[in-house]
Structures are given as C-alpha cells and as structure tokens.
Here is the input.
Amino acid sequence: MITVEAERFRLAEVFTIARGSRSEAQVLTVTLARGGAVGRGECVPYARYGETVESVAAQIAGLPAEIERDALQSVLPAGAARNAVDCALWDLEAKSAGRRVWDLAGLPPPGPEVTAFTLSLDAPEKMRAAASRNAHRPLLKVKLGTPEDMPRLEAVRAGAPKARIIVDANEGWSADLYADLAPHLLRLGVAMVEQPLPAGADDMLSEIARPLPVCADESCHDRASLPALRGKYDMINIKLDKTGGLTEALALRDAARAEGFAIMVGCMVGSSLAMAPAVLVAQGAAVTDLDGPLLLAEDRDHALQYDSDGVHPPRPELWG
Here is the structure.
C-alpha cells in the first residue's frame, strides 16, 4: 500500500534565493506498508522543474501498489515523485530485512560529513550579520544571482573572515557578468561557484576562462545530463529530488567520478527524512550541502544529528 501526505515545516527564518522567498518547507511524505514493515521517503516538489505538490502527488497516486524499485526507474521520470517512492522502497527493504540500507547497497558504513550552511539572499548588512552569527561554521554557502552581488559577498567575507565560502548564483548571472565577477570571487577566497549561468544557456562556460571550479546544479539531473556538461563544468551537484531517488543518485555519482567530475551533494529545503538518504551519497564528496534541517524551526522525530563533525548518518528509526 502506498500513501502520500502533504506536510509543511516552518523555517527558522525567511529563506530567499534569486527566484523568490519562502517561510516554510512544503514536502510530500510517501509511506509504503508491506508484510508488517513500513518504509518512508520525502520529496520537495520544485516549481523550477514544473512540479507542484498536486502534480507530484498525482504521479505517486498513479503507481501500482506493489511497485518494485527496479521497475520504478522506468515507470516514473527523474524528479521529486520518483525520489520519494524510491527512498521509501529502500527504507522498506531495510526494515523488512532488519539491515541498514548501506549494507543492502553494498556500501561501506557511512560516517559524518561536514556540511555547508546556507546564507540566503538579503541586503548586504543583513548578510554580514548572518555571516557573523555563523562564522564558526567551516563552510558557508552564499546565495547570490543578481547584478548587485559584490557588496553582498564583500559583506559576508567581512562577517566571516576565516570561513570557507562557496557561492550559488541560481542561474542569475550572464556570461559577461560572471566574467567580470570571477576575479573578485577569487580575491575574496571563494572556493567554488554553483550554476552561474542559466541551464540551457551555459555553453559560454566552455569558451570563457574558469579560474575557479564551476558546479552544475540546474544543468545536471541524472546520468543523461553528463554528456552536455563536459568541458563546461568541473563539478556536479547531486540532489535526490533531481535524480529521482537514491538509486539513480548513486549511479550518477559513480558515472560522474569516472568522467572526472568532482561531486557535490545538495538538497532542497526539507526535513531530516529528505536528507537521510543523501548522507550516503555524500560520503567522500568534495562538497556536502545537506543543511535543510538546520534551516527549519521544526523537524521530524529522530532527526539527523548535526555537530562539529558534520551531519551524521540516520538512525534506523528515521530512515534506512
């Protein structure tokens, strides 16, 4: 039996990127019950990819009750609906077998991974204050993506002079603007820039200098994305809501590494249930960005543990 439920989690603060703001995380929770075992998965429908809570729920509701993980990969396309069901099936398999998901997947036991903490887009003085409050964190991710970004980045660096910084433009820059900004990103010690140009309009990345690593986010969904990224990107951001679940995320990670791409593992703004499978994918990643629960005012029971070592693998009561 498959059930799907829409849930909302309040954010600790309004979260803003170049495309808009939100004050809550809207998620779908899938529950699978078979033979006395129960598995769960979570997804975050994303308007950028033409998804709504209603459309994704309808995709899930249309599935056969006894769908298996292998068949799911061809029944649903990559995206949020397949993610929630795929992760629920992994959890169900683990609960039914009395084993952890990493054992079933043939992976070594996972450990904690240091995660980025995201500073949302705001006025420079507010971003400086946010950076100062979080200056103790080892990695800050700065949301940018407007023509007026340099004062913001200068303010963040002033507020957190010792933190490692990466920036996410969320497709908000032009090729000319990025070329102008790149030397200043280097001057301020930025370690990587994520999706500076719009997906589908990023061919210029193969023609202009890339003085710091460039990561594909909106331009990378699953393994089918990789051929178009060659020569343009140095890193890919794997998000389970884009890959359509843990199964494809692990396959994408292996394929991307084989082609020489560095790995980032990211997330939409969701609860610990959404992050839990991604912790497995993030093992050994160059950048881990699984801070969704840190942005929430409320979370699931048995929430993921975050401490100075990073985000820890989930307890079986939560997932897997």
Notes: DSSP finds eleven helices and 13 strands in the chain. Residues 150 and 184 are 8 Å apart (CA to CA).
